[in-house]
Amino acid sequence: WTAGVLMAALPTVYAAAAAVITARIYYRIKLRTPFQLLKTGMEHISDQNLDFQLRCTQEDEAGMLCRMFEEIRKDMGFSAVCVGREMLQERKLLTASVSHDLRTPITVVKGYLEYLQKAEKSEKLSEEVLIRIISEMQQAVARMERYIDCVRDIQNLDDIEIRKEPCRMIDLKADIERSFSLIAEKRGRKFQIQDHFRREILYTDRDMLMRILENIFDNAVRYSKNSVILRIEENTENMSFTVKDDGNGFSEESLQKAEGYFYSSDKENGHYGIGLSVSRVLCEKLNGTISIYNDKNGGACVRLR
To answer: Regarding beta strands 290-294 and 300-304, do their DSSP bridges make them parallel or antiparallel, or are they unpaired?
Structure first.
């Protein structure tokens, strides 16, 4: 009876033992090395380290898997290098934007200081005018401080806080007219505002809106021949601020590529296109858009909605 049981059971036991032994031998010869390589590679990647290499000479499926993993690692390394270079380039460009963004309020302050010096010599400076000038200079200094805060956090524009508050349109127009007229006069240009609005209050971040308009106006003055016009309009859906110059207008290349960040047709002279790029991001945070086009009568137009 025992011999009969063993004759029936042992073939199954032998087959199971042979399968286990064969699997272990196959694992040691074929799978252990590739799996250890893959495990090591995953540990490196989890530690954010791409400075390693997988070398597997096997020509089977496990070796092919290791080679595919190595190709993925190379692609990840190349992408990381590209992203690093791109971030470094953007950081350089954003650093260069400091002078671009601060130029306008500095020009305002310098203009008022020159005016105060001339008025002091002629002794024609009234207390009312002095209070108004000091107020305008304080606003310009406040914008400079806000710009510096923005530049400090410029690596992540999404973190810039937008503070929307009620802004009287008549006061906003007066501030724009005083500041922009001074800048235009310093560069020998004429400035004109065409207002077609009835709205009394605009809920927005005044400093950010002024920064956007200053960037656009600065470019318009630079490329204009004689004059720059700011047209303020409204409809049932939005407010629009359109800055138009009387220059040569945008080239076809500029119209096609200016939607990209940091595009400029005048990089040789230190103009990096950063002002428009940053303005576009800030405009989106104000629930707006920026578009560029050429006026049918000539000259470039930048519209902020």
So the answer is: antiparallel
